[in-house]
Design brief:
- One of its GO terms (molecular function) is transferase activity.
- Its cofactor is pyridoxal 5'-phosphate.
- It holds the Pfam family Aminotran_1_2.
- This is Pyridoxal phosphate-dependent transferase.
- The chain has 510 residues and is α/β, with parallel strands linked by helices.
- The chain contains 21 helices and 13 strands.
- It folds into two domains: 216 residues, Aspartate Aminotransferase, domain 1; 234 residues, Type I PLP-dependent aspartate aminotransferase-like (Major domain) (Aspartate Aminotransferase, domain 2, 3-Layer(aba) Sandwich), CATH 3.40.640.10.
- Helix content is 43%, strand content 11%.
- Strands 2-8-7-6-5-3-4 form a seven-stranded mixed sheet. A four-stranded antiparallel sheet has the order 9-10-13-12.
- Helix 12 links the parallel strand 6 and strand 7.
Length: 510
């Protein structure tokens, strides 16, 4: 039994009744346990986990394997050696004592690498999006965003002075066009060129793995707003290091550096560091320094953090990461080739047991992203994760509110250090699970659940007996009765949710 699964299931046991019965637990903690029990009741309490050593990583954001191979560590130590007398802490905010020549040098280097006028480094991508959307839009502006934009953008919009915010269908150029027409026709100041439309998109969407049709969106915006008052903000978190020349990102790949007002690149994924950088012109940088509370009221990045970022970019600029960038492409293609050649693939897809939208026409695509979601029936994604973990593969289910309801999936991430044999084993493991699910559905026996899930649920039963919960009779077992087939979805309450979104179906990971 996977420790990750076992620990998760044990954490779902209710605790508020025990807290109420105790004279030593204050009402403050009892009320919190009641709230947590609301999640435990349907087995959706989020728990932290660590990847077990015996599992193969198809989950982390270490796309280029800079963290796992130690390549970045060596570059980091080299950077530290060049500055032997470095000061560990930054000692203050950027506006007070936290600014220094080193951070300004790194920012100039990043701006030059990405072809931007200016840059400002922040402590995280979440902080970066919050800074942008709380500080940049002005009263009377309108924010237009892809419906699957990251949760941090939504949180930034809570402090935004632009009160009109409109979404368009994900990666849908026609919907985008119609939304801009609606803005133009309903907002006189924008139509007259006195206010701006600020458009928020991502280069690669973290839960869907698809790429923004950026050039088409830019062309549409220019057509509708020829005065140039429609500007783009793009989150390049999942394209940094893996897309574009030397991993510079989608904007650089398309040559749209002059067309995009604000870009944000993060360093905690392919670059195996931490923090993020906002790329823009001097006007926007000055606005952020003066109006972004998440920059004004926080400690500046420390030297070790900056040294890690600089070390990563040293690898990018030298071309040392290009083989890893190319290898990710090779492995994703290898996965599609083997997965789609499995005898069960077409039947399972036709029955709706699973699908991989990004596999459509994969052979004709110049670039494939490293994020490959496997879509399943509602709650089947938990079954698939149980099966993967029991067979030594680390991947996790994604469900509402991280993604919209009815779009359950398992998010697979491919890394440069994965081997062809591991990829083939992953494809075979998914195919074996699909065969079992197809067999269950065709058998017509509604209460059957797959082998790995039965093993996981046995832990629940054992835990309930251990805690005396079995005294409640058969009710404790009823929650695990599953009707497998087209009506599935409401019968299974167990899973391993690994994050929470913002409650509106927006992407909740970064």
């Amino acid at each position: 039994m996977s420790t990750t699964i076992s620990d998760y299931i044990k954490a779902q046991q209710p605790r508020s009744a025990k807290a109420k019965a105790s004279n030593t637990v204050s009402v403050f903690y009892r009320n919190l346990e009641e709230e947590l029990d609301a999640r435990r009741a349907d087995h959706s309490l989020v728990t932290l986990h660590t990847r077990e050593d015996h599992t193969v990583d198809f989950s982390s954001n270490d796309f280029l394997s800079l963290a796992s191979t130690g390549l970045l560590r060596m570059a980091f130590f080299d950077e530290l050696a060049r500055h032997p007398n470095f000061q560990l802490g930054s000692t203050g905010s950027r506006l007070l004592d936290g600014n220094n020549h080193y951070i300004e040098t790194v920012e100039r280097e990043l701006a030059e690498f990405h072809g931007a006028e200016a840059a400002i480094i922040v402590n995280s991508g979440y902080e970066g999006n919050g800074a942008i959307f709380s500080a940049i839009p002005r009263p009377g502006d309108v924010v237009v965003y892809d419906e699957l934009i990251h949760a941090s953008v939504h949180d930034g919009l809570k402090e935004c002075l632009a009160l009109t915010r409109l979404s368009f269908r994900h990666n849908d150029v026609d919907s985008f066009y119609e939304t801009l027409l609606e803005v133009r026709d309903s907002q006189p100041q924008i139509r007259q060129g006195e206010r701006s439309v600020i458009i928020s998109v991502e280069s690669v969407y973290s839960m869907d793995g698809d790429v923004c049709p950026l050039r088409e969106l830019v062309d549409a915006a220019k057509e509708i707003f020829p005065a140039g008052n429609a500007v783009f903000v793009i989150d390049e978190a999942h394209s940094t290091g893996v897309q574009g020349p030397k991993g510079a990102g989608l904007v650089n790949a398309l040559g749209l550096e002059k067309e995009i007002a604000i870009r944000m690149h993060t360093f905690g994924k392919a670059l195996a560091s931490t923090g993020a950088v906002i790329l823009a012109n001097d006007t926007i940088r000055t606005m952020l320094i003066n109006h972004a509370r998440s920059i004004i009221y926080t400690t500046a990045p420390s030297f070790p953090m900056l040294a890690g970022i600089r070390a990563a970019y040293t690898l990018l600029k030298s071309g040392m990461t290009q083989p890893a960038q190319d290898r990710v492409q090779l492995l994703v293609r290898h996965f599609f080739k083997h997965m789609l050649s499995k005898p069960i693939w077409n039947k399972a897809k036709e029955m709706g047991v699973l699908s991989i939208p990004l596999s459509e026409d994969w052979e004709s695509k110049d670039h494939l992203t490293q994020i490959i979601p496997v879509w399943t029936r509602q709650k089947y994604n938990y079954f698939l994760v149980f099966h993967l973990h029991f067979n030594g593969f680390a991947a996790y289910p994604i469900d509402f509110p991280v993604v919209p309801k009815g779009t359950s999936r398992v998010r697979l991430v491919f890394h440069a250090a994965n081997t062809e044999a591991e990829v083939e084993g992953l494809a075979q493991c998914i195919a074996a699970w699909a065969e079992e699910m197809v067999d269950i559905e065709e058998s017509g026996k509604g209460v059957r659940i797959p082998t790995a899930a039965r093993q996981a649920y046995s832990v629940v039963a054992a835990e309930e007996v251990k805690n005396g919960a079995a005294a409640n009779g058969d009710k404790n077992g009823e929650k695990f009765d599953v009707v497998v087939g087209k009506g599935v979805g409401n019968g299974v309450s167990s899973g391993i949710p690994v994050s929470v979104g913002n409650g509106n179906g927006a992407n909740g990971f970064h």
